[in-house]
Write a structure and sequence with these properties.
With 110 residues, the protein is mainly alpha-helical. It has a domain at 7-22 and 46-76. Helices cover 45% and strands 0% of the residues. It contains 2 helices and no strands. The protein has helices at 3-24, 47-74. Helix 1 (3-24) runs antiparallel to helix 2 (47-74). The longest helix has 28 residues, at 47-74. The protein is elongated, with a radius of gyration of 30 Å. It is found in: Cell membrane.
């Protein structure tokens, strides 16, 4: 298994976890954090802790995904880099071919 394949599998796992964490959250204040009761400040480690955990895990998973994508970019070509022949001093310059203009077809042979 190549290194790129390993990175690709890790990226897919992190993407799945990121989707799960985002779907658990509710933008209007509901979601998993509201299902632990509505007691407000009387709850120890309740809604606020859950909301902080979901927020931190979203940012952490997004950061991990970004880093994995950047590292996988190095291994896409198996460690080989694509170099332009424009800046290569030993490259043979391409010689343009000359095209002969086409003669118009005549229907009237004289």
């Amino acid at each position: 298994m190549s290194t790129f394949t390993i990175f690709l599998i890790l990226i897919m796992i992190v993407a799945f976890l990121l989707v799960v964490v985002i779907m658990v959250q509710n933008p209007k204040g509901g979601g998993l954090s509201s299902s632990f009761g509505g007691g407000g400040g009387a709850q120890i480690g309740g809604v606020q802790k859950t909301s902080d955990f979901l927020d931190k895990s979203t940012w952490t998973l997004a950061t991990i995904m970004l880093v994995l994508i950047m590292f996988s970019n190095v291994f896409i070509m198996g460690g080989r880099s694509l170099e332009s022949k424009t800046f290569d001093q030993n490259a043979v310059p391409a010689v343009p071919t000359q095209q002969v203009p086409a003669q118009p077809a005549t229907d009237n042979p004289e």
